[in-house]
Amino acid sequence: MSPTAPRFGVNYTPSQGWFHHWLDFDLDDVRADLDSIAGLGLDHIRVFPLWPLFQPNRTLIRPRAVDQLVQLADAAAERGLDVNVDGLQGHLSSFDFLPAWTQTWHRRNLFTDNDVVAGQATYLRTLAAALADRPNFIGMTIGNEINQFSGPPHPDPDRITPAQADAWLRRLLDACEEGAPGKLHLHAEYDAAWYLDDHPFTPAQAARLGGVTAVHSWVFNGTAQRHGPTASATEHHAAYLIELAKAWAAEPHRPVWLQEVGAPAPLIAPERAAAFTEATVDNALDCADVWGVTWWCSHDVSRSLADFPELEYSLGLLTNDREVKPAGEAIARIVADRRARPYAPAPRTTALAVDIGDDETGPARSTCAPGGAFFEAFARLTEAGVRPAAVLASRAADQDHLAARGITEVVRPHQVP
C-alpha cells in the first residue's frame, strides 16, 4: 500500500449503551465491538468521550474516565486500529452534551468566556497527554461539530464573530499540540461552515487551521431531497465537499479527511445503502489528497434507546448485535480492493470558480449549498462527465496556483449550461 494511500475507518458507536457506555464502561464489550470493526478490514476509529462525564466540574477531569479512554485505545491497538479522539462532546446525533458549569445558572459563552475556554484547553491537553505515547494515537479533533452551538439553527446559541471563532480554534489546537506534540490535531464542523451565509466558523478556518481539513458529508442537507437518492449530485456530495475544501487551502495539496459520511434512511433506502456507499467512496477517492474516509458509524443505535431521530437508529455498518450489514460488506470490499491498487487520481483540469463575497468571512456561502448557483453548476458538470475542481474566484487568474493543482481551465457558474 502506498504511504500516501487513504486511511479507512469508522466512527465508533458502542453497541451496548451508545455513548452512555462511559457510565458503565465494560472493556469486554468494547473489545467485542472492536473485533467486529477490525473484521471489516478498517485501520482506525474515531472515538467520543462525553465531555460532561469526563469533566463534570471545570477543575475536575476524572482520572478514571481518562484511564478508560486509554484502555479503549490500547484495546484498539491490539486489533490493529489507530485512534482519533474527539474531545468536546458537545453534540452527537441530535443530543447536546454540555457540562453544568457552562449552563443555566453558570451560563457562559462556550467560545469567548476565558474561564470556560481555559477549562476546555486543560481538558483537551489532558486527554492528548494521556495518549501521547501510544503509537496508535492519531491525534485530537477539538470536538464534534461544535460549531452548531455558535448560531442558528441551534435553539440557544452562544453567538460569536468569525474572529472569535478563529481565536478559539487556535487556542484549543495549541492545547492539543501541547499535550501530544507532533500528532495530527484538527477541528471539524458540520456543513454550515461551507453552506450557511455569515456563519462564524468559515471555510478559510476549516482549510487552513489544524493538520488536515475535515469535511462531514450528509445528503439529508437538501441534496437528496432536491436531486433524488440515485442522482449524480447525491452520490458525488462527499467528493464535492472535498473539492470545495481544496479551494480555500493555502497549500495546493493539503490533505482532506472525509471524517463523517453515511447513508441516511429513508432518503437512502436500506436496499440502496450498499450501492450508495460504494458510489460515495469511489467518487470521494477520485479526488486527490484524501487523508482518509471514516464512515458514520460502526454499530446501529439500539431501539431500546428513546428519542433519537429515526435515521440515527440504522446508520451502522453493523447491527446492534454486531452482524455485518450490506453497507458494511460494501466497505469491506472497497477497503480490500483499494489497498490492492495504487491511489493515483488523475488531475482535475477544469475548475469552477467560487465567489462567496469575501474569502475570509464568507458572507454569501449559500451559493455553495444545495440549490445555490455554485452547487448546481458543479452538479451539472459532474453529471455531464466532467471531473471539476473548485477554485476561489480571487485565484482564478493565479497561474502558479492553478498549475500547482493541475488546473488548465476555469469556468464560472453562469457559463455552465
Chain-wise SSE layout:
Layout: E1 7-11, H1 27-38, E2 44-47, H2 51-54, H3 63-78, E3 82-88, E4 91-92, E5 95-96, H4 114-131, E6 137-144, H5 162-179, E7 186-188, H6 192-195, H7 203-208, E8 213-217, H8 223-227, H9 232-235, H10 237-248, E9 256-261, H11 273-284, E10 290-295, H12 326-339, E11 350-354, H13 373-383, E12 389-392, H14 399-405, E13 409-411
Parallel strand pairs: 1-2, 1-10, 2-3, 3-6, 6-7, 8-9, 9-10, 11-12, 11-13
Antiparallel strand pairs: 4-5
Helix pairs in contact: 1-3, 3-4, 4-5, 10-11, 11-12
Structural account:
- This protein has 417 residues and is an alpha/beta fold.
- It has two domains: 7-339, TIM Barrel, CATH 3.20.20.80; 350-415, no CATH class.
- It contains 14 helices and 13 strands.
- The protein has helices spanning 27-38, 51-54, 63-78, 114-131, 162-179, 192-195, 203-208, 223-227, 232-235, 237-248, 273-284, 326-339, 373-383, 399-405; strands at 7-11, 44-47, 82-88, 91-92, 95-96, 137-144, 186-188, 213-217, 256-261, 290-295, 350-354, 389-392, 409-411.
- The strands form three sheets. Strands 7-6-3-2-1-10-9-8 form an eight-stranded parallel beta sheet. Strands 12-11-13 form a three-stranded parallel beta sheet.
- α11 runs parallel beside α12 (326-339).
